[in-house]
Structure formats: C-alpha cells, structure tokens
Design brief:
single chain, about 240 residues, alpha/beta, five-stranded antiparallel β-sheet, about 30% strand
Amino acid sequence: MKTSVERSLDTGITTVRVAGELNQTSSPAMRSVIGKAVAECPTAVIVDLGELSHDGAGRLSVFPTLSQNALNTWGVPLLLCVGDPALRHDFAAYRTFVALYEHRSEAQVVARAYVPRWMRRWFPPVAASVGGARLMIGEACAGWGLDHLRDPSQLIASELATNAITHAGTAFDVLTAYTGRYLRISVQDGDSRLPRVAGRPPPTSTIMLPGTGRGLRIVAAMATHWGATTTDGGKIVWALLRAGG
C-alpha cells in the first residue's frame, strides 16, 4: 500500500491519499499515517480513497474508529473521499459513523465550513517578523475567545519564528488553527533540516548560545504536544495547546 500526505497552506486542510489493498498487513501502516496527520491538528483531514481496494468489507471498520478518535481526541474532522461506486457500497454498513463524499471538492467545501477558525500570514526572515508573529497569534486568541492561551501561544510563536529566521534563513508562514480542543501554532519555512533539542538541559546559571536548542526547549515545556514534519522544499514545526474540553 502507498500513502502520500499533502498539507495546504491556503486552507489548512491535510489530504492523505491511499492506494493499494487494505488488508491485515497494510492496515496498521495506514492507521499510523492517518493518525499522525490528525495529531498535527490541521483544520481537517481528507482521506482520498480513490485507489483503495480491500480483502473484505470488514476491513473498512477501521475508518469509523479513526473518524471518532480524530474528532473526540483532537477535534479534527476526518472526511473520506470515495468515488468508486463499488467501494461506496462496501461502506454502507458504516455510513452512520463516517463522513463520506464522492468528490474531494465536496469534502473540501464541507471542511472549510466546518472549521472557519484558521489564520495564515507570510513573514520575511527579519527580526521584526517575530513581533508580527506574536501579534498575529494574539489577534487569533482574542477573536476565538482564547485569552487564557494568549501568553503561552505568543511565546511559542516567538520561538518558532526566531528559529526560522536564525536557522532556516528563509521567508516563513505562520499558521494557527483552533479545532475546539486544541490551538495549533505552526511555522513553515524553506529549510528541510528538522530541528532537534539538545540531549541534556544546561545548569540554570549557564547562558545558552544560539543553536543549542533553547527555543525548542521552551516550546516543549509550554506545549501540550509539538513536532516537526518535512514538506516539499522545507518543513513545518508545530505545537499544540490544549484549549479545554
């Protein structure tokens, strides 16, 4: 089985394309790919099953489980795109438990209507952009009724923006989304090298130099979850703050 993941800067939607046979061997890998995509808390995850086959309709029961977990755990809608009439027929027993659409465009329209709380801004790699990133996140928190998350989210945005300027040296996009359960803050830059946190924290009296992972330690300490993902031509570093519920 082959899977591919596409993350849209314009909509915040992640699309996972699945091709091949769903069977006992391939099912765990597919669940892992979809689960990781959901855990990044995009505005929605569309799973394109246009080239999926299976060795028994019972295998499709994995999708209701994935859909329920995505919504209940992360607040992220999981939308299935199934164009093949035969495969749609095999989903009949699960239609009550999954969001099923014939065309990806239909799923995209629904996803955009479902989660309107999404903001994106582009910044040049200059020091003033750190303040711009903080301001953007502050505006989002105020607009979405998340004043209690403003300080930690602005600090995370500052550190991620600073890392993009210092280490990537490229223009970058700051993206934030609110799923109802988590506030997501992420920075996408043009450097594919993934960040890492140094293995041991320094003594409290030590001044850490640039490049020692200080910013990521702050992110790791403040965030509920955080991670980094490579993209075509760069990477996304993201952090989640639990909003409650």
